[in-house]
Amino acid sequence: xxxxxxxLILVTLVVMLTIAHFKIKKKPDPEQIAxxxxxxxxxxxxxxKYAPDFELPLLNGEKFVLSENIGKKVIVLNFFTxxxxxxxxxxxxxxxxxxxxxDEELVFIGIDxxxxxxxxxxxxxxxxxxxxxxxxxxxKIMEKYGVESYPTTILIGSNGEIWLYETxxxxxxxxxxxxxxxxxxxxxxxxxxxxxxxxxxxxxAQESDTKKKxxxxxxxxxxxxxxxSEKLFCPGCKKPLPQCRGSYSKNTRKxxxxxxxxxxxxxxxxxxxxxxxxxxxx
Length: 282
Prior knowledge:
By secondary structure, this protein is of the alpha/beta class. Helix content is about 50%, strand content about 10%. It is elongated, with a radius of gyration of 24 Å. The N and C termini lie close together (about 10 Å).
């Protein structure tokens, strides 16, 4: 059997299995799938990136500016809300960790997700939060850091990069932060933390590069093509197609954009996208 014929059979089987999946199983909500995929991939997407700069008024009357602390302190940001159960449960552990390192190279900031000041102040008092807390007005800081669930905790190291990006409740801060915190603290104590001007320069370059990549790679889909792309996943990174920026996703979205979907069924679209057509002379 010719190699071309074998490829045709294999691809046809894949298409048939996918079609069966579409027909037999209840289709999950694409939005739920996308959100789940985001949470799984989020730490890998953020670790190693320069932390976005921001200013945050604190409930104690002070103002926290990230760039003023970069390279001088290990910085932990804990995003929470007063209605979040896991947020409440992790506070004693966060308090214990923060209280364990008084006057050391550590800044620990609680960031509430845009709630009323009196509600947050009552919450801080009730749960005896000993670290500084501010309110993210308009969720602008959350947007910068891609925070979509509570609690989310981020550790920023001596070089201005994100070293930890944790979603969900922290039950043992020593394990979560331990070795990373000790290593970064040592670097700062030795005076080797990044300088503010270098951090801002590198952050600007990172943001500029991100904008360029997004502009070059973006393929806008609408209508049926957009809906169909949300049902497909990249076999490499496992992200839904609209969330992936790899070549597989890009090529598939290009095909969808160029196709005349009309009233074609999902099965017909799948065949047109992925089925290898046999040449007449094979």
